[in-house]
Amino acid sequence: MPSDKLPRVAWLGLGNIGLAVCKNLAKYGPTNGPVTVWNRTHQKAADLAAESDAFVAATDLADVVSSSDIICLCLVDDAAVAQVLDDAIRATSVKGKLFVDFSTVHPDTAAAQADKLPRHGAEYLASPSEYKGRHTTTTMNVADGLLQNTVFGGVPLAVDRLITLVLAGSAQAIEQFTPFTDGVICKSTILLVDEPCEQASLLKLIGNFIRFSTIEVLCEASVLSEKLGMGQETLSKFVEALIPGPAAGQLRMLNSGSYHSEKKPMIPISMAVKENNHLNDLAQRNGVKLKTLETVTHHTNSVTAKRGADANLLAIYGSIREDSGLPFEN
Predict the structure, then answer these.
(1) Which H or E run includes 166?
(2) Which of 136, 138, 223, 316 is least surrounded, with the fewest CB atoms within 10 Å of its CB?
(3) Separation of alpha carbons 18 and 262, rounded Å
(4) What is the pTM of this model?
(5) Distance CA 211, CA 154 (A)
């Protein structure tokens, strides 16, 4: 397809996973010219643009939106998503634009954006940083809304395009974005065609609840093994044989001590605290008791109180060690 028929793409938000996915989108995706990057801390966008001519940094949000057909968001929290989209709507016309949201937000936030953008002629596609979809490329010229997009896999898998995406939104919006998914920014996609955008956020929260719960069990099992005098190597062999993949890798990271030695963790504890709060809210509103979530929340809150919001997510291992009479550091 001629390059002038391809969509112009912008990326808003250059955190750890946003940066990784954005780089792959620019390198492998069918875009019309360089990807325009914007970040609230502009220096991150400027540094990325200085690395490669596949990117151009922008400071003005209105210019970014007005000059792009597809606008991807990967922002820190619900307030940031709502603020950026409100600012875009006030500053320029969003008619015919497709907004693809990779941010992890409360389903209520996703629903609010999916309701708001079509009233201004745009569309919202949900894909909270852990899922999504793919197909053919044409410049967006009709009101189609928002795609909510969820990403499962973490930063290392995102770098290697091995994450799984979940896309929720209209069939038209999903078709518009699918050329950028499988083989471009992800390994596979779960498509929720014509499903409410908040379904992607729900799946993200439930999926990460399973993920965090697995980490909790690995930490507890590791502490139990140590207290009972069984070598960590023995437990590692069992995990690698029975539940290989992310679980085995996480156990190796626990044993390495990276949970307390990394100065700048890829996954800060604040991410888990935010998602735990969202899930606790949904569970309470729907009369569901989640005892495992209560335990995970206790440990994430404990780490935050003692180590700060930028502590490593895996530092819950240290908290569990302390509860069992062991030092925080292994």
Answers:
(1) strand 164-169
(2) 136
(3) 20
(4) 0.83
(5) 11
